Amino acid sequence: MTPEFPVRKRALVTGGAGQDGWYLIELLLSQNYEVFAHSRRAADPALHEGRVSWRIGDLTDDRFLNKLLSDVRPDEIYNLAAVSRPALSWDIPIETTILNGIVPLRICEFIRRELPAARLFQASSSEIYGDSTDDSQGELTRANPRSPYGISKAYAHQTIAAYRQQYGLHLCCGILFNHESPRRPLSFVSQKIAHAAAAASLGLITTRELDERGRPVLADGKLYLGDISVRRDFGFAGDVVEAMHLILRNEVPSDFVVGTGQAHSIAEFCEVAFGIVGLDWNDFVAADPLLLRKVDSHFTQADSSKLRDELGWRPRINFPTLVDMMVRERIRFLTPSTASVS
């Protein structure tokens, strides 16, 4: 008698070359998934050591998206692809709206027509709440997005709920609060701070590495930031992707807030990061009025009680440990070459 082996689940991760994609793909591979990953541009061939089948293309091209879904025919879809920074979304609002809002709608339509048994996880965002005045934000907190990024994410979020109710499909959202890791790009404030602290600890005055404006992250001994009083719920990306998988694998499709339940200011992030290397952050951080956002969410703190109570999720990495991980990885990155630009 031929032994029966469990059929490997087939997962598609869009935006797979980003921070979340890296951690999620590692998780899926550890659980014996057959993983297909999408990236807009060619991915590093060393990523995941050839264990992933990559598909390169533009999801806003409907023909490419339909071919991708038709060819892969996944059991599970994790839609992480997005214009991922609210500030950038003001520069490219139309592209942001199509990628963040319309592409999830097209995926829902494909599932409805062609793959009704497939499950979809949509990466929603705490930016859908805008500048909330609530003590914390949960699944029932009123959406009030204030940027093209937040508006497009809110559109996708509500689309998922509507399609789930109308057609009975297994569609779900994770409302993701800030989540960081050593794999964060330097265009994000958390990684800028970690990088600057690491560089300063090595005696660098000006870094070769540039921020999103094309300027050195550390310039003449200073890290320039906007409003450092802004408070965010900072979690670890590895913990967040575990929540994604739990949410999608839950037998009852639903939406869940994903966050630590603790808020820390940008100033606190600086204090911890520079403190790790024995430096006073006040000596290195300076304000740049040009970095102040006219429209911003000044306070986010997740109420993830539904996720904790129903699915048993708990974050494993706390805030000081997260910052320590990021700073020490930047030190490792910078150590081979400690020459500064003058």
Give a short overview.
The chain has 342 residues and is an alpha/beta fold. The chain is built from ten helices and 13 strands.
Notes on the structure:
By secondary structure, the protein is an alpha/beta fold. It has two domains: 194 residues, Rossmann fold (3-Layer(aba) Sandwich); 100 residues, Alpha-Beta Complex (UDP-galactose 4-epimerase, domain 1). Helices cover 38% and strands 15% of the residues. It is built from ten helices and 13 strands. Strand 1, helix 1 and strand 2 form a beta-alpha-beta unit.
What is the approximate shape? Answer: globular
Q: What share of the residues lie within helices?
A: 25-40%
How widely separated are the two ends? Answer: 73 Å
Largest sheet features? 7 strands, parallel
Which structural class fits the helix and strand makeup? Answer: alpha/beta
Residue stretches low in confidence (pLDDT < 50, at least 5 long) are 338-342
Quickly list its features.
2 domains; alpha/beta; 342 residues; UDP-galactose 4-epimerase, domain 1; Rossmann fold; two-stranded parallel sheet; 13 strands; globular; seven-stranded parallel β-sheet
Question: In terms of topology, how is this protein built?
Answer:
Blueprint: E1 10-14, H1 19-30, E2 34-39, E3 53-56, H2 62-72, E4 76-79, H3 86-89, H4 93-114, E5 119-125, H5 148-167, E6 170-176, E7 179-180, H6 189-201, E8 223-225, E9 231-232, E10 235-236, H7 237-249, E11 255-258, E12 264-265, H8 266-276, E13 285-287, H9 305-311, H10 319-334
Helix pairs in contact: 1-7, 2-4, 4-5, 6-8, 6-10, 8-10
